[in-house]
Specification:
By secondary structure, this protein is α+β, with helices and mostly antiparallel strands. The chain folds into 2 domains: 5-152, Fructose-1,6-Bisphosphatase, Chain A, domain 1 (2-Layer Sandwich), CATH 3.30.540.10; 165-259, 3-Layer(aba) Sandwich (D-Maltodextrin-Binding Protein, domain 2). It is 27% helix and 29% strand. The chain contains 6 helices and 15 strands. The strands form 4 sheets. Strands 3, 4, 5, 6, 7, 8, 9 and 10 form an 8-stranded mixed sheet that branches. Strands 13-15-14 form a 3-stranded antiparallel sheet, with helices on one face. β6 (114-122) and β7 form a beta hairpin. α1 (5-27) runs antiparallel to α2 (44-58) and α5 packs parallel to α6 (218-230). The two termini are 34 Å apart.
Amino acid sequence: MTLNLSNLLSSVEQIALDASAAIMQVYSREFTVEEKEDKSPLTEADKASHEVIVAGLQALPEGYPVLSEEDAEGFSDPDGAGRYWLVDPLDGTKEFIKRNGEFTVNIALIENGRPVLGVVVAPALEVSYLAAKGVGAFKVEWGAGKVGERRTIRVAGKPAEGATWRAVGSRSHPSPDLAEWLEKLGSHEMVPMGSSLKLCLVAEGTADAYPRLGPTCLWDTGAAQAVVEQAGGRVETLEGEPLSYATPSETLNPHFVVWGSRD
């Protein structure tokens, strides 16, 4: 079946916005925090968002399998064309608990190991990032219940020789290897940010690089990687290979770097 990624992007955007509304209902009141087996936190908002997204994606005519962080065991395999949905219902749960607004809803469509569509919504910040292969990458700012127009975004390109690099890093997961990596990069300023918003800052050109030298999972990066790539950037392992989603049974990503340029 030939995909109309433009139409599909709009459908997935709406699903992510519906999930965001469910998250904000929890965010606006007191909520309980559980602990998963891996010691990471889980809230009512994670669960509510997961239910909205899975129901929305399963209602689409494409019928692709869904791999969600909140039900990884329920995923079998990609379909015969190598397609599946990759979902993080609430990326940045620690930021959600801190109430600093830096959390996102991530939905990606994977095709033969590559993210070809991605939607990242930051409900508390009222901003969305959208992308699809051959369609483009966009930022949407919204408020008071009204979603604004899509604005095309583009990476900044490689900084000029001797210029200061704008590097973005995790607010909740500092890495002991990061200082060494940044020293090799040269003159830089560090911008802390939570969740998949770090990749989106590179995609929109407000950051030049995001080194991730700590653990992440497929669902943390898939949607935002689609945005970065369609905005002209790249997401690569330390060996220079594109971050791959071809083996969803292996949910941990290798260390990687997001670059706001093609070289």
